[in-house]
Write a structure and sequence with these properties.
Layout lengths: L14 H14 L8 H16 L2 H19 L5 H20 L8 H27 L11 H14 L9 H19 L10 H22 L6 H23 L6 H17 L3 H11 L5 H8 L3 E4 L2 E4 H20 L8 H24 L24 H10 L1 H4 L39 E7 L19 E3 H13 L6 E5 L2 E5 L15 H5 L17
Antiparallel strand pairs: 1-2, 3-4, 3-5, 5-6
Amino acid sequence: MRMFRIRAASEIEPSHCFLVFYTVALLADVDDIILRASGLIIAALCLWVVLCLNRISFLVLLLATTAQFVIFELPDTENHTNLLIFTNISMILCILYSYTRADRGNMDVFAAAALPIARLSIIAALFSAGLHKFNYDFINPAVSCIRQFGGDIFQVFTSDFSGFGPAPLTVLLGMLLVVAVLLWLQRPHLAMPPVDWPGLLPPLAIILLGMVGLAFLSGGLGTSAYDYLIFVIAVAVLSWQLVEAPLLLLPKFQWFALCFSLLVHLQLAVLRIVDFQAIAIALIIAFVPATVWDAWKRQALARIGPFQVHRLRLFFAMNLAGTAIMFAQGLDLIDWPRPLTAWGLLFIGGLLVMLWPVISDLFSPARGWRWEGVPVLQGQVPTWLYVMPVLVLMFGLTSHMGLRTAGNLSMYSNLRTELGQNNHIILGASPLKWAGYQEDVVHIIDIGDTATISGVLDRWGPLEGNYLPVVEFHKLMWRWRERGETVPMTVEYAGVTTTSDNLPLDPAWRVDNWDWEMRVMDFRVIESGDGPNHCRW
């Protein structure tokens, strides 16, 4: 059958690149379920897509992963998974739309509909993430998530990830050395690409102005050089997400934002966050102009000894190797300190292999293309399909609406919007809030020493002494009862204090069924007190 015909390397076109990058993003999401049948099925479907490169295989993969997310993982899904749900639905609609066209046999019809939606979706996601971070605690060096990230980056980059000795920083420097040597061997007379200063100066000026303005708003930057560094990085992150993301709408400014985005997301891939970075880079790839893909196509085949392998498939194979590492770790066949870091390094290496034709051509004196950017709406998209990126943006605003605080691109943001407290710089008066779920909370006064609760349920921070929205508390009660946990607790809700030897079985708190709020909402633990909101995932 045609849908199972393996596409020859000579038949692979630039329009297939987005397909493979997006498939890798879906593959990266199976790290938590790779030992389950569903994880293995999704990995097999990803392999089918990359071998056959047709819309039917991609549609089956999209339907399978969306079903996995919605049926088995909601509502406590991670940020990237929620983004994938929106983009998966968008891609499904694009495929179905492409089959309604007169030229439905052409893969380019799907790409023309999918790429504009992908561009708008990553802009909406980045802007939403930046809007969450635009708060006083994120720019406070003492509690900013940047401080936590700084420690994580240093630890992960300088420690053994595989048990064999080398640190990720050593591997990354080795990759850069290989790239430099290959560039010199291939291009003895290198030429630096021209810098588009008109496209660079406005973002840099905005970053500088933002730094001055936020320094004034913060009221104090600390006393050490490290505090100043944290503040500068925090402003750079805010500028990237709040300023450069909207500038992606303008082709002239795209190259700077894309380079910054790639560097940030590749760095985070080493920090065990391969899944989010994979979908972010898949959507970012939608901004690469056709002239660049044409240059890439001329060197799309990579030679490995006597064999030639298409770079797209080699990129996928290196990420499939990352999946194999996670599978082996899950079966206790290997015992690596940081298997996801190993996958992150494979992801970066695969990306370098994939983009090598562009990298080498970029420094060539005979380079025949110039970065002109891509009009964001370039393509053929039915008007009704633009509702999907709008929904991504609105989903990112749900913290400010009072509907969620977790899983809505608010990761590592220090944002607080609950219990009448709001640390946002612009939306501090909560003008968008219309739902009361963030104020309808349970105060968890005490958890007995004999509690048998699993630590995985305590995922947003310590429960004892803090608050939890009642919707989230009901989910805990249901899970603990289903698992047969014994949880002696003292809680206060609506002015009534309850003490029980096993609260999940207490008639006042027993939960037998999930209501619709429990199925779609997700909230973090709310820290008690009026101090700064500390960093949490």
